[in-house]
Amino acid sequence: MTSDTEYIEREFKKKVCEKVRLAAEGINRYRVFTPFVFEDGDHLAIVLKREHAQWWLCDEGHTYMHLTYDLEEKDLQRGTRAKIIQNALAAFSVVDQEGELAVPIEGDRYGDALYSFVQAILKISDLSFLSRENVRSTFMEDFRAIISQHVPEDRRSFGWHDPEHDPDGKYMVDCRVNGMPDPLLVYALPNDDKVRDATISLLQLERWRGKSPRSLGIFEDQQEINRKVLARFSDVCSKQFSSLAANKDRVARYLAEAIH
Hints:
Blueprint: H1 3-15, E1 21-24, E2 29-33, E3 46-51, E4 54-58, H2 62-67, H3 79-91, E5 95-97, E6 100-104, H4 110-125, H5 132-150, E7 156-160, E8 173-177, E9 184-189, H6 192-209, E10 214-219, H7 227-236, E11 239-241, H8 248-258
Parallel strand pairs: 9-10, 10-11
Antiparallel strand pairs: 1-2, 2-3, 3-4, 4-6, 5-6, 7-8, 8-9
């Protein structure tokens, strides 16, 4: 290790942690080992490299790759998750270079740069620990996104209610897919209360129409729903998917077939 990198390692230890160390991986390229880990125990991937007379810290795309073990890449680019990522990058002056997170080291502020970089990665990794409220928010965003992606705008109505029988919107439907002889009523179901509301809505629409409406229920996680609540809903709903995250391809196919 050259005197320059020995100095850098000392600065890393001083500002971040005594357990930080560098290991050479070629000319002007070092692996930065830290004790910091993702929630599954994998260590953060950090590289120190010199390009165009500038030292950089980067993750070479590892952070996003690690998140896609549990999430789809496109889900990181929209809604609540995208906001969390952008806020973390802005707070710690980290840049996203086509999926690679990086931070330039200004002057001799090596320790400050590593501290900020680690904090940004850990903050982004917190996507795995979203609060229940944020998870629900993300579920609703994902629900709207998949319908918007697979149903043309002129054939979908989010937040629909029967204008004739229910002008005040007491029996809301999350999305009505139209353009067929029998429209499809789609419900997003994150919890027991929403499942109960959907059951009541379908029963009321059945009374008004004189027949059961064509309906689709998409759960955040059906296993979390009370068995009695689920049983009553199952009696009135035409089609169900037990979770959106695990069935996105099936939901997409079902919607594509429904609108033809």
